[in-house]
Amino acid sequence: MSLFDAFRLDGKRVLVVGGATGMGAAAAEVALGLGAEVTVLDIAEITTVGAKAVHVDLRDTASIDAALAAAGAPFHVVLCAAGVADGTEGIEKTNFLGHKYLLERLLAADALPRGSAIGFISSAAGLGWEKNLDDLKVYLAIEDVAEASAWAIERKRADYVWSKQSICAYVATQAMPLLARGIRINAICPGPTDTPLARANAETWLGFGAGYRAEVGIEAATPLEQGYPLVFLCSDAAAGISGITLITDAGHFAAGNTGVWPADTGAVHYLLGKF
Ligand SMILES: NC(=O)c1ccc[n+]([C@@H]2O[C@H](COP(=O)([O-])OP(=O)(O)OC[C@H]3O[C@@H](n4cnc5c(N)ncnc54)[C@H](O)[C@@H]3O)[C@@H](O)[C@H]2O)c1
Question: Tens digits of per-residue pLDDT, 194-223?
Fold first, then answer.
């Protein structure tokens, strides 16, 4: 035993929702490397060696119920990593409402014991959530998935930015009630990361911040570079951290926000909801 053991996940059961590819798959690999027993849920084929694979469609609550029954319980770490881009039918469900439903089912079943942790993947695109907090609270309070989905569609908010703002607001508002049950919740907000999803939307997703990256001499993040902090936030080494949305964008928003990289100040201020 050493102090470093707090970073490990030995003996823990980890559920990765949306872990077939990209950051979720990388996080699953990290968790396996840290000694966890890993179950991956996804709509796509899951090929991670050493993980239990369970099919789920996050747009369908019956599918989520069936997946949770197949996955078993309890879980000490839940990573909510599934996501799709604008233009995908049911984006509000895949990116947020399905994860929320899944977590609420786990909580109702007492399947997240004291000491467990939840880690979401939000996005730098969701960082302007505070300006919309009143509306987000109304949305988060709608328990029924179909009703919440209809609410978002009616208000033209069934889109990527709203889904990521929802995650940030959910993390911030759930941190206290969850901690009263001994559970922590956090999110990472990645910048452009080289995954199948980003490649499929390369111009907008990987084009964002390209000038900043060229200036500092880096590439878009790798999935692993996002998987590490996501898993860390759910380890005992992060026991003092809850309710945060950690910006994992290699300093891009910090530079844009402060005018250190003025080329992106307008875009960053827009995404932060500053005007
Ligand atoms: N790649 C980026 O630049 C970037 C930046 C910021 C945030 N993100 C977010 O990171 C998360 C991971 O995305 P990624 O870039 O690794 O892409 P990815 O496509 O590799 O991973 C997303 C996963 O979600 C799964 N999924 C999609 N629809 C589903 C459904 N209905 N039910 C269950 N699973 C479903 C996919 O099959 C896939 O395995 C997403 O939430 C995305 O919004 C990505």
Answer: 999 999 999 999 999 999 999 999 999 999
Q: Is 159 in the pocket of ligand 1 (CB under 6 A)?
A: no
Q: Is 187 helix (H, G, I), strand (E, B) or coil?
A: strand
Beta carbon of 22 within 6 Å of any ligand 1 atom: yes
For ligand 1, is residue 50 a contact (CB within 6 Å)?
no
| C-alpha of residue 12 to centroid of ligand 1, in Å | 24
Instruction: Answer for the pair 79, 227: CB distance below 8 angstroms, yes or no.
Output: no
The phi-psi region of residue 139 (left if phi > 0; otherwise alpha if psi is between -120 and 50; otherwise beta) is alpha
CA 82 / ligand 1 centre spacing (Å): 4
pLDDT greater than 80 at residue 275: no
